[in-house]
Amino acid sequence: MNELNKNIKSKTKAITVADLRKMGLHGNATAHLFDGTKVTLRKRFCTTTKKGYVDGNLIDVEVMMLYSEVFPKIRTVKKDKVLIARKSREKDDELYYIKKH
To answer: How does DSSP assign 1-63, residue by residue?
Structure first.
């Protein structure tokens, strides 16, 4: 986790798209959207699983989503089951890091 914090360039407490991409680069990072969708963060894009037909069979397929369309919809960000950030309703609806106590 310390490696991840060293690589985050943002000096403010608000998370940026670049920070999300860095988390996706390290792996095991997920974001939950306001509609309940779980999104896996990758290096260049996000993915989510949906049902789709391939060769007439209904299977789970991964759908690619751009960070620009996902970022405003993010409610929480997790890395290895640890809550990293949550959208604050009080402060301009930005994603803020969770403070360590």
So the answer is: -HHHHHH----SSB--HHHHHHHHHHS-EEEEETTS-EEEE-SS-EEEEEEEEETTEEEEEEE
Q: 95 or 12: which carries more pLDDT confidence?
A: 95
Q: What is the pLDDT of residues 10-48, one digit of tens each?
A: 444 788 899 999 999 998 999 999 999 999 999 999 999
**Least confidently predicted of 11-15, 21-25, 73-77, 85-89:** 11-15
Burial class (CB in 10 A: 0-12, 13-18, 19+), 76: middle
Residue 37 CB neighbour total at 10 angstroms:
16
Residue 70 in 3-state DSSP?
Answer: helix
User: Is 24 in contact with 17 (CB distance < 8 Å)?
Assistant: no
